[in-house]
Amino acid sequence: MITYKTQAEIEKMRRAGQVLFAAMKAVKSAIRPGVTTAELDRVAESVIRSHGAIPSEKGYEGFPGSICASPDDMVVHGIPSESVVLREGQIISIDCTVLLDGYQADMARTFPVGEISPEAQALIDAAKESFGKGLAFARKGYRIGDISHAIQTSVEGHGYGVVRSLCGHGIGKEMHEDPEVPNFGKPGHGLRLREGLCIAVEPMITAGDYRVYIAEDNWAFLTRDHSLSAHYENTLAITESGEALILTMPDGFDGEDV
Ligand code: MF3
Ligand code: CO
Ligand code: CO
Prior knowledge:
With 258 residues, the chain is of the alpha+beta class. It is 27% helix and 24% strand. The strands form four sheets. The protein has a five-stranded antiparallel beta sheet, sandwiched between helices.
């Protein structure tokens, strides 16, 4: 079921998004060679709770972390661990969801660990770029498929792969609501966008083959060919006119990122 949000509900989601932005910023500054993903998880949880909010991934279908921390060829849903020690040259995707006053915000970024290769940086940049291309169609009158197609075209134009088996999604009181927002698709297809629709748009891209498999912990998704993967996610609200409101970027898409 698709639910359209009122201005007051969108405002609550924006406040959740502000807390999430602060938590993501704190995680980013804690990333360095030698840090464990468990430590990053503690950083995020403490910032979120200090604002009276809840890290809503914790306990979600039994997920143990406050963040998903997915290095290198891990696409998403990495369980934070004391035994995952980040090393110089790796990339690390952090995905986090915050619940405040009954409403969710969802956001992901991929960060470098120390100095990384130009190839790895290009992949990270392409994930953000593709989000921006999708954002241009996150407007009243367009359809979900227009967002999906714009993302896919951008990613594949760089020669990268788009993960098919994981999607963006509606968001509100629940972390995952209808509709699905795939990162590939046909223009002119899918739900027509209208004011009050809130969605998490989240390209997950790979340097090689787009196919993924699930790890033995039954959570983590990894690229089948072990190529690097990057993730870029924000929560958006479709407005009455003009560009969508990015609820997880206080300064907007062209403003300061985390
Ligand atoms: N934040 C994720 C998303 O973008 C979901 C996390 S799965 C969880 O949809 F198990 F970690 F909660
Ligand atoms: Co997320
Ligand atoms: Co999401």
